Each structure stands twice: as C-alpha cells, then as structure tokens.
Amino acid sequence: MKRLFQRIRAWLQTLPYRTGVVVLLCCIPFYILSFAQMLLPISAGVKTVLWTVLFGLAKTCQYSGLTILGVEGYKRLKSFFKRRRRSAEEGESQ
C-alpha cells in the first residue's frame, strides 16, 4: 500500500504548475458546499454524510494541489501574490 501512495505522489509531482493551481482552486467550492449544506432542510444523518464527503473532497484537492505545486511552485505562487499586493498598494498611493 505504501508503494502505491509513493507512485501516486510521484505521478502528481510530474504534473505542471497550472494544474496544481487549478486543483487548489477546486478546493474552495468544496469547502463552501461542505458548510453551506447545513442550511438544507434534510436529516442530520444525511447532513453528516454530505459534510464528510464534501469536506473530504476539499482536503483531497488541497493536498493534491500542494503536492503538484511542490516547494518551488508554492514559492512562485506566494511571490505572485506579493507582487500583486505591492502593485495595488503603489496604485493606491498615487
């Protein structure tokens, strides 16, 4: 079983940077849905199952996206947001 996980991880790490970003963005709707379904008029048992499935999908997308990105991709994404914040602050000061 451990070998299977290592093979999956190795395969995920071969995927491109953009795929990692898309997979990370996919976790946002799953997080929203996992908590928004609590507002539905359904039984507590069904809500529990829905929450477990949707929250599990959100976490799976999150960890898969981070695995695809890797350390270098994470640094690249972080620097992208820093540049955006800096340019927005410079635009406000002018």
Structural description of this entry:
It is a single chain. With 94 residues, this protein is an all-alpha fold. It has helices at 2-13, 17-36, 44-93. The mean pLDDT is 88.
Question: Main attributes?
Answer:
94 residues, mainly alpha, 3 helices, flat
Give start-end ranges of low-pLDDT stretches: none
Question: What does the largest sheet look like?
Answer: none
Number-wise, the strands total 0
| Rg, Cα atoms, Å | 18 Å
Helix content estimate:
over 70%
Shape: flat
For the terminal residues, how far apart are their CA atoms?
58 Å
Q: Give the overall pLDDT as a whole number.
A: 88
How many helices in DSSP terms?
A: 3
Approximately how much beta-strand content do the residues carry?
under 5%
By helix and strand content, what is the structural category?
A: mainly alpha
- Give the SSE order as H and E letters: HHH
